Amino acid sequence: MPFVSMTVNGVRRKTGVEARTLLVQYLRDHLRLTGTHVGCDTSQCGACTVHVDGVAIKSCTALAVACDGATVTTIEGLQNGDELHPMQRAFHEEHGLQCGFCTPGMIMSAIDIVRRNGHDLDEHTVRKQLDGNICRCTGYHNIVRAIRAGASAMRPR
Amino acid sequence: MHDFIYHRPDDLGVAANLLAAKAEAKLLAGGMSLLPSLKLRLAQYSDLIDLKSVAGLQDIRREGDTLTIGAMTRHAHVAASDEVKQAIPGLAVLAGGIGDPLVRNRGTIGGSIANADPAADYPSAVLGLGATVTTNRREIAGDRFFTGLFETALEEGEIITAVRFPVPFRSGYMKLPHPASRFALTGVFVAQTRVGVRVAVTGAGSSVFRLPAAEKALSIDFSPAALDGIAVDPGALTSDIHASAEYRAHAIVVLTKRAVTAAQAQ
Prior knowledge:
Number of helices of chain B: 11
Distance between the termini of chain B: 46 Å
Oligomer: heterodimer
Helix content of chain B: 25-40%
Distance between the termini of chain A: 47 Å
Helix content of chain A: 25-40%
Shape of chain B: globular
CATH architecture of the largest domain in chain A: Roll
Number of helices of chain A: 5
Strand order of the largest sheet of chain A: 2-1-5-3-4
Structural class of chain A: alpha+beta
Structural class of chain B: alpha+beta
Largest sheet of chain B: 5 strands, antiparallel
Largest sheet of chain A: 5 strands, mixed
Number of strands of chain A: 5
Low-confidence stretches of chain B: none
Low-confidence stretches of chain A: none
């Protein structure tokens, strides 16, 4: 059984996994980081979005072994002590969720949108860039508002 | 997903040797099509050979009138590359519309064309620009690369290393994205190249194809109006639950006009 070694939310992890283990299975079942959700399991919904080496990907469509040596951030790794990440706080303040199932993926994607498009985001850009994340409650209005507010709050002071 | 042995060589020769040595081995690029098909058990392999660490497969470089994109270059990198945007804006637009941002962060040009999905975007650029596919063994003309439904001219054990695009005067890509998958229900790549106008259609047949009538009309007059009166025969086109052949035939002409308009804006 191959060993994978990766830094997850700042902690170095080394575990034996089957080669077929998906990154999301590794995170949820092996590391018990269940904040990353499995929605569709067919690369459509984005609930499983995490950052691998700073880039957002769908962890249901990546092999854990292929992430050997990588730095991975999940929703659990965003907050600083008791202080929420500005994007998490924006989702809270703008009520950017209904049932909350898609929220971890939405937030991880939102941070990637800021990485790619900067802090000044118009509504059209956010909606277009949110293509890979589905909210089955259709709560997009507040999600879009939250991402714009979060992007602005992430601006370095 | 059935289990397999995972390999991550850092050298092309080692990858080729592994591929030759294992009877049921498959190359893994971005995995955006391969992993879903393994998960659904539509495919099964004894070994996966991941190309992500192979040196020299992720470069984008322009030399004179040729833009070369390494096989393992991610869609997001092509879409954001200043080099691509400057040389072939239509190609940057195409790459920026594949799947969704998370897929584009992972999927690669080599993986896309090797898979040769009939509704994939990249094949239309390879054919529409008259590109050359470079492998570990030879060079394959874009005109001969796509041979059918998920079929290419690649031989057993052959590995795509790069795609070489001749820089055109102008180019444009337009598609009707499927609302759920973002695959092209129909997509058209138009290029005004040094050897004439080329029009390539994806998503409408079992494989990407050219549109000689439109190419001829646009060679005389590179404008949307030149396509008035051009009709596409729906006889050979795809008909499925998403769109009829007649719908696609109509869409091809509309999208070709829009792609010309996009090219004219350059």
